[in-house]
Amino acid sequence: MPRASAADAAETARRILDAATTHFAELGYATASVDEIAQAAGVTRGAVYHHYSSKPLLFAAVAAEQQEAVAGAIVQATAAGVPDAALRDGSHAFLDAITRGAASRILLVDGPAVLGWQEWRRLDADGPERELRLGLREAGAAPVLLDALTAALSGAMNELALWLAAHPDDTDARTQAHTALDDILDAVTPRTRLDGPPTEGMKEGPGVESGAFRSSVTQIRATR
Fold it and tell me: Considering the entire predicted model, what is its pTM?
């Protein structure tokens, strides 16, 4: 019986989470109500609060699941690629995954305000940013630049996603966003390596890495 009870509880929590995802995505956090979520899940309001003690915590659970789904899309897109191609494929997969379906409204529109900036950043760091860091490292990013490059590229991609989320049905905007992302990646990836000759305009010796980072950030800003 305890096993059946645990299974029933897990199934109920799953129904609540699915219903909440639909309502938050379609109506937005402010409009979606716990009563409507409970009705859609086929449970009582009390059952919702038994599993998720408040509406903000229910939203946080939904957001965490959506962020993991975005990270999963990145992993799937990069599974068979060589390092340089994987970084690019994963970055484009991120942009599409986070700006389509439930993820767009939940993570980009309501997420920062409902979760707070620090929690929103933590979710990103534990999911998509984690995969981005791995992609940069496997593509040959200099260890001394890895943290800075991850922060710079993650910030640029998040801003691009926020911009695209404001144009959800604009195919031209999506094309422009992916083109801009390619330009950003072109600006960053040739300068992340320690091997090979210095990039034109850069001097050999101490400070090459920091100069490369400044050059990369300058080009990133120019594309935004």
Answer: 0.78
